[in-house]
Amino acid sequence: MSAFHWLNEQFSFFGLPVYWSDFFGNLLALATVWLALRRSLVAWPVQILGSVLLLIASLNVHLGGNAARQIVIIVSASWGWATWKRSREQEGTINVRWASGIERAVMAAAMVAGTVGFGAILKGTDASFYPGAPWWMVLADAWIFIGSILAMYSQARRYVEFWFVWLAVDLVGVPLAIHSELYFSGIVYGIFFVMVLLGIRDWAARSKQEIASPLEPAVLVEGREDAVRAAD
User: Fold this and answer.
1) How confident is the model over 84-130, as pLDDT tens digits?
2) Can you tell me the distance from the alpha carbon of 76 to that of 63, in angstroms, rounded to the nearest whole number?
3) Ramachandran category for residue 134: left, alpha or beta (phi over 0 → left; psi -120 to 50 → alpha)
4) Angstrom distance (rounded) from CA 53 to CA 20
């Protein structure tokens, strides 16, 4: 028996059957959002580990799109981690900003076209849910997959819009997770919704700031008054 076989087993969570992989993966996903809110580099390795666990959970319930999503997240998080680390080393800061109009249009087009294209692949290969699954389920699976890619990309680029992309993913992810009997994932998606709203507010406020460290006060630019650390 594999040392990690227990991850494929279920336990009762307030009367709901929950996979251990789904449980721990989503706890790490929550930690990832909290760390991203604080603009911490640690968010990336935590996200990678959480995605490995959620990959196992998705395979347990035959969610092909969501499983592929976790693989992409692992790869994208590795890139995002390197991007943030390089920015910190080269510039000494991590800047966040709103995307331009063109950048937003490209992301919106990629979201729609990617969902339709990937949904067609999932439908044609019966890789989502079960053979003959209705289009709405397959497209929802594809929407979450493509949205996650765009969210990871915009997070690595430090766009404030990355929070809005996750919001779009959450709105579909909650009912899909519950329908797939990943009940704990559905609960966590609901918590994500609240955290994403906090993230939008925080990053939007900091969109004209230089952020030296997630543990230090921000330094305002454009001639505004600098925030300073209180003396020890």
Assistant:
1) 888 777 766 667 788 888 999 999 999 999 999 999 998 888 877 77
2) 20
3) beta
4) 9
